[in-house]
Amino acid sequence: MKRSGTLRLLSDLSAFGGAARLRELLAGDSAVRVRGSPDGRHLLLLRPPGAVAPQLLVASRGPGAELERAWPAGQPSPLDAFFLPWPARPALVLVWESGLAEVWGAGVGPGWRLLQSTELCPGGGARVVAVAALRGRLVWCEERQARAEGPSGSPAAAFSHCVCVRTLEPSGEASTSLGRTHVLLHHCPAFGLLASCRQLFLVPTATTWPGVAHVLLIWSPGKGKVMVVAPRLGLSYSKSLNPGRGDTWDFRTLLRGLPGLLSPREPLAVHTWAPTPQGLLLLDFGGTVSLVQSHGGTRAVGTLQEAPVGPWGSAALGTLQGTLACVLGSTLELLDMGSGQLLERKVLSTDRVHLLEPPAPGMEDEEELETRGNLRLLSALGLFCVGWEAPQGVELPSTKDLVFEEACGYYQRRSLRGAQLTPEELRHSSTFRAPQALASILQGHLPPSALLTMLRTELRDYRGLEQLKAQLVAGDDEEAGWTELAEQEVARLLRTELIGDQLAQLNTVFQAFPTAAWGATLRALQLQLDGNGKLRSQAPPDVWKKVLGGITAGKEPPNGILPPFELLCQCLCQLEPRWLPPFVELAQQQGGPGWGAGGPGLPLYRRALAVLGEEGTRPEALELELLLSSGRPKAVLQAVGQLVQKEQWDRALDAGLALGPSSPLLRSEIFKLLLAEFAQHRRLDAHLPLLCRLCPPELAPAELLLLLRTYLPDEVGPPTPFPEPGAEPPLTVGLLKALLEQTGAQGWLSGPVLSPYEDILWDPSTPPPTPPRDL
């Protein structure tokens, strides 16, 4: 059955700050770039370089100041601007042709403020020609001194570009974290960059060398792969491209190694490109729309009723729920992507219409949830949405149904009877009154109360979860959908009592989606690195209590089901082993009585070691770090003993010196352990100054000599002035002098002289008295 679309006005833009300027820019310039924020609350309008008056306007719906900047003639203006998908606060990045990048954020003070400014091309002599933002990464194409490589128009000048990437993540409340620059492609032509939620598309431009203008690339960072595609030739090849492993490609070498790609071919004649979750849409000058899929295959989607009017005519493409939308001038056409059939054709009242991307799943506000699944159009007249009937079989349950279904599962878990509880029984039984009261409140039979206010966030999450499930059933953007579903499920489970089914479900999610599950845990615990490289957490104590809780007697989980803390340690061992010791150290600081950290039972470092395996099979470096960072005397002594066996004297001494005045006994035990090694062999002599610093201040020279006598090896024969060849040199007074001076100085300053010969140490220039000679 043919679906019919309806055009509905969502806002006349009066709810946005700076509405007058917003309407003026939308009505006055058809070339203005328009982007919506991931939460749908902000609109970005940019007049790019070359416009009569380059200008930037960021308008916000509801409270919040707008950001407006203008650049006079002759002054460089931004090449492009993008919103960043940061959940904590709205943020955007501006990039100039010179390589200057500015990150702006809102929500950390009054209005928008500059968070960071950096140079993408610090060496100078480079020019940014295209830029894109891709899920925590900034990717740009830069031209590097083309004139030095050859005259304009020559092959050397045409392949003088490179494509680079840097990670861009939030750090704390009012700062950002920029990773190091990694070059993806060397010696490539000028590429245009387009980003979808999962992939980056490198497409030819008008200045691309004609011999390779029929080739485009699809980079998938999550898979560490790049697809090289020639749509007109029907060829596609996959190559590894993972910056984390240091992968990089010379573009010319890459193409020469792929058969058939350099066959003579006409450049791609494309009027409009549009990235989508399904792949890259191409609209040619004849009105035909094609889709280059993420695996490299190309297929025709359909043909529009009318073709673009010349290369400068405006056109916009988008997809949602299996429908292609094309805004061509003042015409909106909706096509079924499966059959190419025209579903609807509408004539709009203006030819300056912009197609907005839908808000990111999970970041919409209440108003955006109402229009989820619809296309959004923006013009000077207002913000509109195009809605149509949902496909058969993808029906979202009502809020009332969700209440009874969720309550049914809750009561079933607590029930001891064997019969299955049904939502219908909950609706009519007088035993279960809570879900009936809540359903009545939501249905409007009772006046709103504080309960509805408290439950609004939970109900929105449940509704968003059901919509996400419907999206997965419809086969829309499956990989990102599964990842988001895993993150939402972990966040939900961390708010429940982690026993029984909930704990088993948490284990299942961590096994199937470890990266997504750890990312959700990272946000729940609010983990971040401070300036000293230490992990810090701002999560409330009740969250840590659930994570650190051990196994209660009588409630042991089945085999293979790990408690939350052990589950996190196992996940860190797989993803980031270097984070495990600081995480355990932080967990020990957070623990309270009975949480598994400060109460009875195994200490946390022992629980973490158990995850690493049996003793003797664990990674030695990781085990040592866990023991040293535990702060437990037995663990630290065990670690120092292992370091002594490996003859890693520096680390053993540093472990003792790192202990503060609050651990004098442990420090003294480490000193005695190392003193025994010092008495038996000479491999510790080079580290004698550190051993002197470790010496306990209360140790007297006489006590030191008694300790040394205990540790000295037994003599097997009469003493000789020189050691036997190949034998270990014995301990001498010269080596012992530094330690005696250390203890002597401390003893002199702290109390009376304990020995009549101790004052000799204070005046080494005075010889002892000469004994009388027999005449």
From TrEMBL:
Recorded GO CC terms: BLOC-2 complex; cytosol; early endosome membrane; endoplasmic reticulum; lysosomal membrane; nucleoplasm
Compartments, record wording: Microsome membrane
Domain BLOC-2 complex member HPS6 C-terminal: 401-773
Residue stretches making up the BLOC-2 complex member HPS6 N-terminal domain: 1-385
GO BP term, example: lipid metabolic process
Domain of life the protein comes from: Eukaryota
Keywords from the named record: Cytoplasm, Endoplasmic reticulum, Endosome, Membrane, Microsome
GO molecular function, one term: small GTPase binding
Pfam families cross-referenced by the UniProt entry: HPS6, HPS6_C
InterPro entries, alphabetized: BLOC-2_complex_Hps6_subunit, HPS6_C, HPS6_N
Assembly information from the UniProt record: Component of the biogenesis of lysosome-related organelles complex-2 (or BLOC2) composed of HPS3, HPS5 and HPS6. Interacts with HPS5 and HPS3. Interacts with biogenesis of lysosome-related organelles complex-1 (BLOC1). Interacts with AP-3 complex.
Known function: May regulate the synthesis and function of lysosomes and of highly specialized organelles, such as melanosomes and platelet dense granules.
Protein name as catalogued: Hermansky-Pudlak syndrome 6 protein homolog
Organism whose genome encodes this protein: Gorilla gorilla gorilla
